[in-house]
Protein backbone atom coordinates (compact mmCIF):
# COMPACT_ATOMS: atom_id res chain seq x y z
CA UNK A 1 0.00 0.00 0.00
CA UNK A 2 1.34 3.42 -0.98
CA UNK A 3 0.89 5.49 2.18
CA UNK A 4 2.27 8.59 0.52
CA UNK A 5 -0.34 8.22 -2.21
CA UNK A 6 -3.16 8.09 0.31
CA UNK A 7 -2.14 11.37 1.91
CA UNK A 8 -1.24 13.05 -1.36
CA UNK A 9 -3.60 16.07 -1.61
CA UNK A 10 -3.63 15.66 -5.40
CA UNK A 11 -5.18 12.18 -5.43
CA UNK A 12 -8.76 11.68 -6.54
CA UNK A 13 -10.23 11.12 -3.08
CA UNK A 14 -8.90 14.36 -1.62
CA UNK A 15 -9.79 16.27 -4.80
CA UNK A 16 -13.33 14.94 -4.47
CA UNK A 17 -13.49 15.89 -0.79
CA UNK A 18 -12.20 19.37 -1.62
CA UNK A 19 -15.01 19.81 -4.13
CA UNK A 20 -17.57 18.70 -1.54
CA UNK A 21 -16.22 21.16 1.04
CA UNK A 22 -16.13 23.99 -1.50
CA UNK A 23 -19.73 23.31 -2.51
CA UNK A 24 -20.80 23.28 1.14
CA UNK A 25 -19.05 26.62 1.69
CA UNK A 26 -20.69 27.92 -1.48
CA UNK A 27 -24.12 26.88 -0.21
CA UNK A 28 -23.60 28.90 2.98
CA UNK A 29 -22.55 31.95 0.96
CA UNK A 30 -25.60 31.58 -1.27
CA UNK A 31 -27.90 31.37 1.77
CA UNK A 32 -26.27 34.33 3.51
CA UNK A 33 -26.43 36.60 0.46
CA UNK A 34 -30.00 35.50 -0.39
CA UNK A 35 -31.48 36.37 3.01
CA UNK A 36 -32.73 39.83 1.94
CA UNK A 37 -34.72 37.98 -0.80
CA UNK A 38 -34.16 40.92 -3.16
CA UNK A 39 -30.55 39.81 -3.61
CA UNK A 40 -31.41 36.15 -4.24
CA UNK A 41 -30.97 36.57 -7.99
CA UNK A 42 -27.49 38.04 -7.67
CA UNK A 43 -26.53 35.35 -5.14
CA UNK A 44 -27.71 32.64 -7.53
CA UNK A 45 -25.71 34.11 -10.41
CA UNK A 46 -22.65 34.28 -8.13
CA UNK A 47 -23.16 30.64 -7.21
CA UNK A 48 -23.29 29.64 -10.89
CA UNK A 49 -20.17 31.74 -11.48
CA UNK A 50 -18.35 29.14 -9.38
CA UNK A 51 -20.23 25.92 -10.27
CA UNK A 52 -19.87 26.52 -14.02
CA UNK A 53 -16.12 26.89 -13.58
CA UNK A 54 -16.01 23.87 -11.30
CA UNK A 55 -17.84 21.80 -13.91
CA UNK A 56 -15.00 22.66 -16.33
CA UNK A 57 -12.37 21.80 -13.68
CA UNK A 58 -11.40 25.48 -13.50
CA UNK A 59 -11.49 25.67 -9.73
CA UNK A 60 -10.69 28.85 -7.85
CA UNK A 61 -11.28 30.46 -4.49
CA UNK A 62 -14.94 30.12 -3.51
CA UNK A 63 -15.21 33.43 -1.67
CA UNK A 64 -13.34 35.44 -4.31
CA UNK A 65 -15.28 33.96 -7.23
CA UNK A 66 -18.62 34.36 -5.46
CA UNK A 67 -18.10 37.99 -4.42
CA UNK A 68 -16.79 38.95 -7.86
CA UNK A 69 -19.81 37.36 -9.55
CA UNK A 70 -22.21 38.90 -7.03
CA UNK A 71 -20.94 42.46 -7.47
CA UNK A 72 -20.36 42.24 -11.21
CA UNK A 73 -23.86 40.98 -12.04
CA UNK A 74 -25.86 42.50 -9.18
CA UNK A 75 -28.01 44.95 -11.15
CA UNK A 76 -28.79 42.68 -14.10
CA UNK A 77 -29.38 39.63 -11.88
CA UNK A 78 -31.71 41.60 -9.60
CA UNK A 79 -33.75 42.87 -12.55
CA UNK A 80 -34.07 39.35 -13.93
CA UNK A 81 -35.01 38.01 -10.49
CA UNK A 82 -37.76 40.63 -10.10
CA UNK A 83 -39.11 39.92 -13.59
CA UNK A 84 -39.18 36.17 -12.93
CA UNK A 85 -40.79 36.57 -9.49
CA UNK A 86 -43.39 39.02 -10.83
CA UNK A 87 -44.29 36.69 -13.73
CA UNK A 88 -44.69 33.68 -11.46
CA UNK A 89 -46.74 35.64 -8.90
CA UNK A 90 -48.99 37.02 -11.63
CA UNK A 91 -49.59 33.60 -13.17
CA UNK A 92 -50.14 32.01 -9.75
CA UNK A 93 -52.72 34.68 -8.93
CA UNK A 94 -54.45 34.04 -12.25
CA UNK A 95 -54.51 30.32 -11.47
CA UNK A 96 -56.10 31.06 -8.09
CA UNK A 97 -58.71 33.30 -9.71
CA UNK A 98 -59.74 30.53 -12.13
CA UNK A 99 -61.96 29.00 -9.44
CA UNK A 100 -64.10 32.13 -9.45
CA UNK A 101 -64.73 32.15 -13.22
CA UNK A 102 -68.47 32.03 -13.87
CA UNK A 103 -68.04 30.05 -17.08
CA UNK A 104 -68.57 26.32 -17.45
CA UNK A 105 -66.38 23.74 -15.74
CA UNK A 106 -64.77 22.97 -19.11
CA UNK A 107 -63.81 26.62 -19.57
CA UNK A 108 -62.33 26.78 -16.09
CA UNK A 109 -60.21 23.67 -16.71
CA UNK A 110 -59.11 25.06 -20.06
CA UNK A 111 -57.99 28.27 -18.37
CA UNK A 112 -56.15 26.28 -15.69
CA UNK A 113 -54.32 24.18 -18.29
CA UNK A 114 -53.32 27.30 -20.22
CA UNK A 115 -52.01 29.07 -17.12
CA UNK A 116 -50.18 25.95 -15.90
CA UNK A 117 -48.54 25.67 -19.32
CA UNK A 118 -47.39 29.30 -19.06
CA UNK A 119 -46.07 28.66 -15.55
CA UNK A 120 -44.11 25.67 -16.83
CA UNK A 121 -42.63 27.72 -19.69
CA UNK A 122 -41.72 30.48 -17.24
CA UNK A 123 -39.99 28.00 -14.93
CA UNK A 124 -38.12 26.41 -17.84
CA UNK A 125 -36.94 29.84 -18.98
CA UNK A 126 -36.09 30.78 -15.40
CA UNK A 127 -33.77 27.79 -15.13
CA UNK A 128 -31.44 29.36 -17.70
CA UNK A 129 -31.60 33.01 -16.60
CA UNK A 130 -29.01 32.93 -13.83
CA UNK A 131 -26.43 30.49 -15.24
CA UNK A 132 -26.70 32.30 -18.55
CA UNK A 133 -26.01 35.63 -16.82
CA UNK A 134 -23.00 34.08 -15.10
CA UNK A 135 -21.63 32.68 -18.36
CA UNK A 136 -22.73 35.21 -20.98
CA UNK A 137 -22.03 38.91 -21.35
CA UNK A 138 -25.30 40.27 -22.71
CA UNK A 139 -28.31 42.49 -21.96
CA UNK A 140 -31.39 41.76 -19.86
CA UNK A 141 -33.66 41.55 -22.91
CA UNK A 142 -31.38 39.19 -24.79
CA UNK A 143 -30.87 37.09 -21.67
CA UNK A 144 -34.63 36.61 -21.41
CA UNK A 145 -34.98 35.82 -25.12
CA UNK A 146 -32.06 33.39 -25.29
CA UNK A 147 -33.08 31.70 -22.03
CA UNK A 148 -36.40 30.86 -23.62
CA UNK A 149 -34.74 29.75 -26.87
CA UNK A 150 -32.27 27.51 -25.05
CA UNK A 151 -34.92 26.02 -22.76
CA UNK A 152 -37.25 25.18 -25.63
CA UNK A 153 -34.55 24.29 -28.15
CA UNK A 154 -32.82 21.84 -25.82
CA UNK A 155 -35.92 20.32 -24.28
CA UNK A 156 -34.35 16.99 -23.33
CA UNK A 157 -31.56 18.82 -21.48
CA UNK A 158 -34.07 21.14 -19.80
CA UNK A 159 -36.16 18.21 -18.60
CA UNK A 160 -33.03 16.51 -17.23
CA UNK A 161 -32.11 19.68 -15.35
CA UNK A 162 -35.62 19.85 -13.90
CA UNK A 163 -35.24 16.23 -12.73
CA UNK A 164 -31.95 17.13 -11.03
CA UNK A 165 -33.60 19.99 -9.16
CA UNK A 166 -36.58 17.75 -8.33
CA UNK A 167 -34.10 15.38 -6.67
CA UNK A 168 -32.79 18.34 -4.68
CA UNK A 169 -36.34 19.17 -3.60
CA UNK A 170 -36.87 15.55 -2.55
CA UNK A 171 -33.71 15.67 -0.43
CA UNK A 172 -34.96 18.91 1.11
CA UNK A 173 -38.17 17.15 2.07
CA UNK A 174 -36.24 14.51 4.02
CA UNK A 175 -33.57 16.85 5.48
CA UNK A 176 -35.03 20.41 5.38
CA UNK A 177 -32.22 22.21 7.31
CA UNK A 178 -29.77 21.40 4.50
CA UNK A 179 -31.94 22.80 1.69
CA UNK A 180 -29.22 25.24 0.61
CA UNK A 181 -26.73 22.35 0.32
CA UNK A 182 -29.07 20.29 -1.86
CA UNK A 183 -29.78 23.34 -4.04
CA UNK A 184 -26.07 24.03 -4.53
CA UNK A 185 -25.27 20.38 -5.28
CA UNK A 186 -28.16 20.25 -7.76
CA UNK A 187 -26.88 23.45 -9.38
CA UNK A 188 -23.42 21.94 -9.70
CA UNK A 189 -24.87 18.87 -11.40
CA UNK A 190 -26.98 21.06 -13.66
CA UNK A 191 -23.95 23.22 -14.49
CA UNK A 192 -22.47 20.37 -16.53
CA UNK A 193 -25.61 20.40 -18.69
CA UNK A 194 -25.80 24.19 -18.86
CA UNK A 195 -22.19 24.24 -19.98
CA UNK A 196 -22.98 21.69 -22.69
CA UNK A 197 -25.79 23.89 -24.03
CA UNK A 198 -23.77 27.11 -23.79
CA UNK A 199 -20.79 25.65 -25.63
CA UNK A 200 -23.11 24.60 -28.46
CA UNK A 201 -24.17 28.22 -28.85
CA UNK A 202 -20.58 29.45 -28.74
CA UNK A 203 -19.60 27.07 -31.53
CA UNK A 204 -22.65 27.85 -33.65
CA UNK A 205 -21.59 30.28 -36.39
CA UNK A 206 -25.11 30.97 -37.63
CA UNK A 207 -28.00 32.66 -35.88
CA UNK A 208 -26.19 32.74 -32.53
CA UNK A 209 -23.03 34.53 -33.69
CA UNK A 210 -23.88 37.73 -31.83
CA UNK A 211 -24.52 35.91 -28.60
CA UNK A 212 -21.44 33.77 -29.07
CA UNK A 213 -19.25 36.86 -29.40
CA UNK A 214 -20.58 38.10 -26.08
CA UNK A 215 -19.88 34.74 -24.44
CA UNK A 216 -16.31 34.58 -25.70
CA UNK A 217 -15.67 38.14 -24.52
CA UNK A 218 -17.03 37.34 -21.08
CA UNK A 219 -15.05 34.09 -20.81
CA UNK A 220 -11.82 35.83 -21.74
CA UNK A 221 -12.34 38.56 -19.15
CA UNK A 222 -13.28 36.04 -16.44
CA UNK A 223 -10.08 34.06 -16.98
CA UNK A 224 -7.83 37.08 -16.61
For the largest beta-sheet, the strand count, sense and barrel status come to: none
Strand content: under 5%
SSE ordering? HHHHHHHHHH
Class inferred from helices and paired strands:
mainly alpha
Summarize the structure.
The protein is built from 10 helices and no strands. By secondary structure, it is mainly α.
Task: Give me some keywords for this one.
about 220 residues, mainly alpha
Structure write-up:
The protein has 224 residues and is mostly helical. The protein has one domain (3-223). Helix content is 82%, strand content 0%. Helix 5 (74-97) packs antiparallel against helix 6 (105-135). The model is unreliable at 205-224 (pLDDT under 50).
